[in-house]
Amino acid sequence: MSTTTPGDEAYLAAQRADLLRFMAGAARPEGFGWLDERGVVDLTRPVELWITCRMTHVAALGVLAGEPPAPGGPDAAALRALVDHGVAALRGPLHDDERGGWFAAVGPDGPEVTTKQAYGHAFVVLAASSAVVAGAVGADELLAEALDVAGTRFWDEQTGLSVEEWDRAWATLDTYRGVNANMHTVEAYLAAGDVTGDPVWHERAGRIAAHVVAWARGNDWRIPEHFDAHWTPMLEHHRDQPAHPFRPYGATVGHGLEWARLLLAVDASLGGGRVAGLAEAAAALYDRAVADGWAADGADGFVYTTDWDGTPVVRERMHWVLAEALNTAVALHRLTGEQRYADDAAGWWAYAEEYLVDHEHGSWHHELDPQNQPAGTVWPGKPDVYHAYQAALMPTVPLVPSFAAALARRG
């Protein structure tokens, strides 16, 4: 890939185009599959709901951006076909026609993981919202059902939070509660509110955000991730599985960064000031995550997790953490005008170019070891272009509305 300065306009456009090229090979009859380091679908893995949703979302953003394709990448018609494919998979193989909602994972012979997970269902809302804006076939019906399921099955009006996981029949609710699923629920609700015009989704995002700010403020701006059924923090959860890909022990550095951006988006979406302290909390979360996570062991890169005193626990570097750091630096720079945020972003783009961007096969290495060499202990392969694509898109669009709606307004 020919580049100029990492992070400048031409560089970001080239990144977006090559990420779309890489993801185009993920299509399977059941949805979008897990890609390996070379961009080949790993047929030993099922089609997962969250990956299919993220790929559908990114393809929709590619349609709306209307940019020239990379060599060998999908043109406008091919991108539209990928969005339609994703919507069809979400209305077909991944959908539970008998019980409603969506399976967590399916294979050629049917469902392989039948639980109904808030994390994956949040991404159905996001994918459907973006697909509606992109004009995909069946997207309106998909979004209507996804929002109905979100409101009736996962939203807890009493607490103002999302519950986590049901069995297939919606009969048994798991006692675990998690901030990760709530984070992506906020992202999805913001997008749904932008697309539907219904303020209830932005308001619910604000209620979730208020809880997270309170928890983080009371914990030195390290967000508790895991809770019991009564929303009591479980700070020792998964101490024996510190590198869990979705529920790791301790403070997840990347979530502090991701929440910071989302808090700013909630504040702007609600008109500012509706939920007290969101902008201040965003800056505090950013500062804590950078202080704890960046070069915490002497080498550049963000560690994955820390203990509750900020000591690194899992020192592998995940691509998504760097991507979210970039997004939040852009958002805070726009809000405050402080040069330090722009300087951070410039340095992190240089790091991404040197260590994360795979110039041979495409996309970004999803995981690096503590010496910044490609690894795969937590995230083998390259299943996800969503974080990298949004990082390459964020500097070109406003913080709100959400990505698809912003691209549509840009025309």
Question: What features would you describe in this structure?
Answer:
- It contains 13 helices and 15 strands.
- It has helices at residues 9-23, 49-65, 76-91, 118-134, 139-154, 179-196, 199-217, 253-269, 278-293, 319-336, 339-356, 386-393, 403-410; strands at residues 27-28, 31-32, 47-48, 105-107, 110-113, 116-117, 155-156, 161-162, 165-166, 177-178, 226-227, 251-252, 305-306, 317-318, 367-368.
- The protein has one domain: Glycosyltransferase.
- Strands 3-4-5 form a three-stranded antiparallel sheet.
Concise account of the structure shown:
By secondary structure, this protein is mainly alpha-helical. The chain has 13 helices and 15 strands.
Topology:
Elements: H1 9-23, E1 27-28, E2 31-32, E3 47-48, H2 49-65, H3 76-91, E4 105-107, E5 110-113, E6 116-117, H4 118-134, H5 139-154, E7 155-156, E8 161-162, E9 165-166, E10 177-178, H6 179-196, H7 199-217, E11 226-227, E12 251-252, H8 253-269, H9 278-293, E13 305-306, E14 317-318, H10 319-336, H11 339-356, E15 367-368, H12 386-393, H13 403-410
